[in-house]
Design goal:
globular; 42% helix; 4 helices; 89 residues; 28% strand; alpha+beta; 5 strands; single chain
């Protein structure tokens, strides 16, 4: 996926490494909201990620694993930290 300028700036401001964004795209759960895709880590996706990359590396990025990513039109629109549960409709 292509990273928008807005998303790149938000990643830097919010301290979210590009590796976590790559993991969100590969392992994250997807929820469709308001015409866009919301990627986030749930328990199942965290287990799959831990199985593939290892617990040690996952602990290194533990603070960033609460991240979410919004994609629209094949482009990453923004990224941020989740402070609330994802509301699924």
């Amino acid at each position: 996926m292509v990273l928008s300028e807005h998303a790149r700036i938000r990643m830097q401001q919010r301290g979210i490494p590009s590796r976590v964004v790559d993991w969100l795209a590969a392992y994250g759960a997807v929820d469709y909201q308001r015409g866009s895709e919301l990627y986030y880590f749930n328990q199942r996706s965290r287990r799959a990620l831990e199985r593939d990359v290892g617990r040690r590396q996952l602990l290194h990025y533990a603070k960033a694993l609460d991240a979410y990513m919004v994609c629209a039109d094949g482009q990453i629109a923004t990224v941020g930290h989740r402070y609330q549960r994802v509301v699924r409709h």
